[in-house]
Design brief:
The complex is a heterodimer of chains A (284) and B (359). With 284 residues, chain A is mainly alpha-helical. Helices cover 70% and strands 0% of the residues of chain A. Chain A is globular. Classes of the chains: A mainly alpha (284), B alpha+beta (359).
Chain lengths: 284, 359
Amino acid sequence: MTVERRPLLDFASHAILLLGVAIVAFPLYLTFVASTHTAAEIVQAPMPLLPGDQLFHNYAAALTGSEHGQGSGAPVGRMMWVSLVTALGIAIGKIAISLLSAFAIVYFRFPFKQLVFWAIFVTLMLPVEVRIFPTYQVISDLHMLNSYAGLTIPLIASATATFLFRQFFLTVPDELVEAARVDGAGPMRFFKDVLVPLSSTSIAALFVIQFIYGWNQYLWPLLVTTNESMYPVVIGIKRMIAGGDAVQAWNLVMATAILAMLPPALVVVLMQKWFVKGLVDTEK
Amino acid sequence: MGAISLRNVVKRYGFGPKANPVIHGVSAEIADGEFVVIVGPSGCGKSTLLRMVAGLEEVSAGEIRIGDRVVNDLEPSERDIAMVFQNYALYPHMTVFANMAYGLKIARVPEAEIKTRVDKAAKILELGPFLERKPRELSGGQRQRVAMGRAIVRQPAVFLFDEPLSNLDAKLRAQTRLEIQKLHRELRTTSLFVTHDQVEAMTLAERMIVMNAGRMEQIGTPDEVYHRPATTFVASFIGSPPMNLVRGRAERNGFTAAGSQLLPLPAPAPRDGELVMGIRPEHVEMSSDLSAAGWPLRVQALEMLGAERLVYGLLGETLFTARLDATLPYPAVGDIVNLQAAPAHLHWFDAATSTRVAA
């Protein structure tokens, strides 16, 4: 890195950075402020810009669903749980399946191996939205609507993660496989004792990305959940807002939004070190 | 116990008419406890042969025995061998201890026994202080020793070394060579060591196998290989600078080299006809007296190596190298000098088959 001493440039760059932070942070701050007032206070013409005294009341009300406006009043605590299970299921499922399929593609010889690889690769071009109706048909026929299985399984298969692990496995030197064979490690033993530990940083990075991907799913849960008890929190927010001119419990909606943002933020903050290492580092 | 027997071992890649043979039937018997070095230029099949013994490559034809078992179809781990790889192939995420213990752990050796064996190996290799470190925290030489330790703890019947010294710098290589010799004296485990470096081969080998283009050219002690090379390939591969090979025609006491230069011979050739005469650069004597019987060499270049001096010149049309003690007087470029050789130092090879013609 070069060291430069140019005060004017320093000032300008700091100003731009601060402006950027303000643009990102201000809506978040407003959401938080709104979640600490009563519904009536928020809808006043100049909205209060300082936190109010309803913090605990609003969050408790949202989590338990004890109080609501015209929209849905399902307890957010339950929604958070559904979201957590779904996001964890998707993240762990994706990683497990991708690790195993990449292992098969890189280390085993089987008929039509190239074809299989390209078939997986081609699905990269087909995101959930493109195949959403046939997928819905299948899930519906299998009676998986309103279930964790229906929320997670269609989103688990991942060409991206398979491809990432394949690329990583290709960089593992052949001698390591041979040394393991001489040591008497069978394929699964090699996978468990050598490949998975070596991929740990990539696994961590993928976990963060996929957890957030799972948590933020909107379109798919919107289709497969019709029962309040199976709403993920992202859908829950939408259902809390009734249409028309009805009085909205904006304070509760905002509290829910804050709650919905917390887990992904926590995952990123707690796993940041691993996350960066997994994306940058190719430690061998 | 640890004897290795190769019987007409063949390796082909591919099948049918498109098959690409890389090893054309190698047979050798290696006694229990022997240290045998396989040496040859790159691409000669020496590593492939070693990997076939290890079980990392399939044997296309022939038979490999270790001890009294045919091992052709056994997994590497069932062959009672241990291998040291060129780039060491240590497990990067495991400590030195775990690296050495991994094979034993899989073989379900009791915990206490593993600890004793690893500690013993670590002591022999002076790795004691590093047992809890990861491979990336070690120097090249230390990693190399861990790789050897991993082989030792398994107490195999056979050690296989695949160019284990080629990633070390020159000084460390010489030192490790001595350590391997010492280790072999202590353990007396049958060892097969692949290298392309003839100095390594000569210094480590009890017997050496010289390979070229998938064929075994010669198997013998370093002395035999140096003093009685079986083919012109061995003659030119072992020894530095390589043996001078002069193609020509022998008749009674004379040898007509290519370029019609008639060279008087100190003793008659083993037979008349088309032959290749070989003589090592260190085995010729040089004088400026052109009247004595000898071979005239027109000097083209000189190289001073410290203890000795290399004299390059033309003998007839053949490029010829002579090695002189650096303290002796030496000719200038352009001079013609007289070369003489003792009869015992002349090697004869058949011009057509390149094989040695017995004197």
